[in-house]
Please model this.
Amino acid sequence: MKTGLKKSTTLSDVAKTAGVTSMTVSRVVNQNGYVSDETREKVLRVVKELNYRRNGLARGLKLQRTDTIGLILGDIANPFAAELARSIRDITTQRGYNLFICISEHSAKEDVAAFDALTDHQVDGIIVATRSNRIGDKHLHEMIERGVSVVCIGRDFYNENADSVTADALHGGFQATQHLIDLGHKKIAFIGATLESGKNLKRFQGYLKALKASNLPVEERFITGNSETSDEAPGYSTEKLGYEAMKRLLVLPQRPTAVFTRNDFTAIGAINAIKESGLRIPNDISIVGFDDIPTAIHTSPALTTVRQPTRREGFLAAEFLLRRIETKDPIEREEKILECELIVRQSTGAPA
Amino acid sequence: MKTGLKKSTTLSDVAKTAGVTSMTVSRVVNQNGYVSDETREKVLRVVKELNYRRNGLARGLKLQRTDTIGLILGDIANPFAAELARSIRDITTQRGYNLFICISEHSAKEDVAAFDALTDHQVDGIIVATRSNRIGDKHLHEMIERGVSVVCIGRDFYNENADSVTADALHGGFQATQHLIDLGHKKIAFIGATLESGKNLKRFQGYLKALKASNLPVEERFITGNSETSDEAPGYSTEKLGYEAMKRLLVLPQRPTAVFTRNDFTAIGAINAIKESGLRIPNDISIVGFDDIPTAIHTSPALTTVRQPTRREGFLAAEFLLRRIETKDPIEREEKILECELIVRQSTGAPA
DNA sequence: TATTTTTCTGTTAACGTTCACATACTTTTT
DNA sequence: AAAAAGTATGTGAACGTTAACAGAAAAATA
Model:
């Protein structure tokens, strides 16, 4: 609000001009309490004339409620995030809440900054869809302690007073790997984690589980391309990571016949590396991604991948949060794990 | 903020516990005014102990400033929007402002709702990056009238008291078309507008201008695929639109040898239609998109397109807005038009 | 007609913060 | 040693709104 040029109209400005008190104007604009038709009409005329808009700060301060909820996204450029934001907004709008979105890329510091920006503005609740990290989690626990309503999406985080919605990436990773095994592959690589760093990466654990279930060896040289999970730079895996990791896999003496990547961007990078080397997909190498981003049907060949039920995640998270906000008494923690779906396209086939 | 379970700590709670007044605590947490080291230490200890956080509503109400700026995006799933949000955030963060993003898809009604949500929360300024529409524009003019600082990005909108940043889509469209003309094409179609609806679509006007400059006829049957610009459903052009429009073009008696589409999504749809018909790109038909979305390098063949200087648009818009916010006196309107860049890839070539 | 209920409007205080001012004590300057 | 400047804290009011209460007039009921 620019205050330099023009002071904005307040309730009492309207009241003065209309010859009533602020309280009457308040009653008119909020449509509650008794107001005579005559007075209401007069007030509304002045409201229009003076171009009055209520001051949400004052209102929120008094009501101890802002009808606003916050969403923290880790990576706005990710189609997954866009879809999530949309689905959440659909619910919140419908239920009479505004949705403010904050971006927290790159670092835990920004996570904390986003939490603080939203709580400072006294949003009624927050949906957190960033990657888990030590500092951010600690701060999140503190905020919940302080009484802020929180729901996490796809995040490794447990607090008795916060709900959680996740996709079953463990099973998703299992399905993707099993699909390759079913096609006859025995040398299946993973791009986007290491045995060490992938401890909390569910889709990677699903990969390991599938190998073990079929008595296939877990070969460390086939597991490559670490996406750092340090507090300083969580960041999503990128195409570049996939490209470089694939380059490394291609020069191995006994190279893999199939690759499962941590996400579709990584898969796209890997595809480019494979094409560049003159090999064909899926004839020489099969590849499976994760996320089913819109681009996945336009890669060549179209990418086999695992789809997360993004919209349902968003809907549920929003419902959980609103329930938490609108319930006075302490409530039980809700946790929902949704199934992923394997989408088979042209990037996978039987090994040569 | 959940108030049911726990009332949040206020300045005077801290003050009481520390044995001082609110004013002293305020001085400590804001680091201004005189406070003895001893008192400061004691206060900080209590602040930590009681887990105090300032109430931004009360603060904003008193200061008449929230150090927050709002961004309204028309389509969050658009890579252009993501890039824009990032660049704007880079500036605002650096200058000490929070950035709250609102989405306004589908309708002018949502535009208005987003404006109102942000102004009600007394953001210091708003950057608008939605598509222009009658109702939304009217509301925007009113808000500017009321004193809200506003900057528009890539939007057809003029107000003496609002700045504007746009990409020179007219010249971008001209370049794209000229590129096709230079390759020897004479039958060049446009997908995503009609002569009537494209009046305000700069890239389309650039197309027309290029044709005229080379004395090529503007053939109405080559101009197809209207993306409705009604108040009810502005919405971005989609792949489907491109697909269907291309289908129509392909059955024309004398089909075009080149197509310029209003954006890359549309181009992707058109590419799919062409492939489906068995024709080859660029041998049989050349195609040029607009926006250079990340996917553009992964279409097959890679898409020739026009890149907008998105980051610079974001930076400039943010700078303009902060200048407007931080300047007390009335200031002159700023308008900046940035150049687009033609990115030539494999989807364009000489006609057969 | 007397009584109760409903309708209409106003008064006061509070939400949590900060600014302007006041007071008192300490240090420096003349 | 007196005056001036600097340091440290407190008081009161205000930012714009609304809930709770109160009082009076009008309408409905007994």
In short: The longest helix of chain A spans residues 310-326. Chain A has twelve helices and twelve strands. Residues 1-5, 229-237 of chain A have pLDDT under 50 and may be disordered.
